[in-house]
Every structure is written in structure tokens, then in C-alpha cells.
Amino acid sequence: MAPPPSGLPARQLALPLPLLAGHDLADLLEDASNAAALAWLRRPADWPGGRLALFGQAATGKTHMLRGLAAARGWPVLEGLALRGWPAVPPGEGLALDDADCAPEEAALLHLLNLCAERGQAVLLAGRDPPARWAVTLPDLRSRLRAMPAVAVHPPGDALLSALLRRHFLLRQLRVERPLQDWLLARLPRAAAAMEEAAARLDRAALAAGGRVTRALAREALADLPGFGPGPEDDDSMASRRDACPDGPSLL
């Protein structure tokens, strides 16, 4: 491979291609928000009746966990929104159903659970609420859902979000000083997906600008990111406070 042209930083030759989003359980960082769920996922043989449901708000990592376990064990993954009629259920040790609470037909979900029970297949579900609270009308389905063990996946805490943001920067070989990382965390949505999206946007912006990541660049690159906003104290308000202070010693 030819060396980069003289005077051109090697980083500018990198193509701003999106990183492939994998679902590997080993990639999940553990904290109090997901520790209980990860403990259950490590021992499928202990699931009561071979069933387990993950539940929690959007962007808490449920899909990553569900697909990570499915990939590790070779289970097929089905989508709740596509579950209709008499769904084809591939044979095997188990299967995973994402957005299970969005299945448009109750009979289809009941058929899937019954067929898996007959075959002795394990089933992992994911949804916003625990299955016992799903609005179903079929008595047989309601009883099966109420008997299913469920574990909550909570929104990630500050330590986990910080670690995720650092990981995404490292994956992209993007150098961002720690004070700027803290500044970003105070302004980004409290979701794991937001850390990945922010890193991708900053990477593209830094490549286009041919320079380092600064607060000004971050403001511009993330301005239209849903949920991105001013932190507890933005720079403009800090500057205004300094200007309003009388001359003399200052702690700012």
C-alpha cells in the first residue's frame, strides 16, 4: 500500500464506513442495570419451563441481549411484528422472539409457545412490559404468559454510559479528551444507542473537518440528534456568569 501523500494525516485516508453492529454477549458491559438479566442468560438450562422474558424501556439493551444469546447458541430469531397465522418454527434447542409484545395476532404467539413446549425448545422473549401485564384476551395465552419468569433490564447508569462512549471512540480510533467526554455525557440522551450514534457522527465530522473533536464541532455534529441538548450548565451560561462577576479572585 502506498504511503499517504506528504503532509496529509494518515487518519484522513480512513473511509467513514459505519461499524457493523454485532450482537455478542461478550461485548455487553455489566452494571446494576443489566446484571440480573445477564445472570439469567448465562444459564438457560435453569429457566423454569424453558422460558424467559426480558422487559424494559426502549434502548436498554434487550435486543442486544436476546440476539447475543441466540447467536451464541445458534437459535433462530423471530420478530413479534411478523408473527401471524401459524408461524413456521425452526426446530432446534431454542428460539428468540424480539418485540414479542407487538405480535399482531394472539393465536400466532400461542401457537408458537405451544409448539415449542411440545418440542422441548427453550424460548426467550423480549418486550416493553413483563408478559403478565400484556393485554391479551385468549385465556390459554394469558395463563402461559403469567407463568413465565421475567427479568427487568433497567436504563443504563452513568458509569455504563461512560464506558460505552469510551468503547465506541476506541473502536473508531477517535481521540476525545476525557473532559469533552464528560461534557458529551451531560448532554446526550440516556441510552446506549445514543452513545454509538454520537461516536459515529463525531467520527464523520472529524474526518470531514480534518481535525480533532472539539466542543464546537460536537455541537454542530450533534445539533439534530434527538434528545441532545444543553447540559446542567452550558458554556454560554458560564461565560455570562464570569462576565457578571466583579473583578477579583474567582473560583471559575
From TrEMBL:
The organism's place on the tree of life at top rank: Bacteria
Sequence segments annotated as region (Disordered): 224-252
Name the UniProt record assigns to this protein: Chromosomal replication initiator DnaA
Organism taxonomic ancestry: Bacteria, Pseudomonadati, Pseudomonadota, Alphaproteobacteria, Acetobacterales
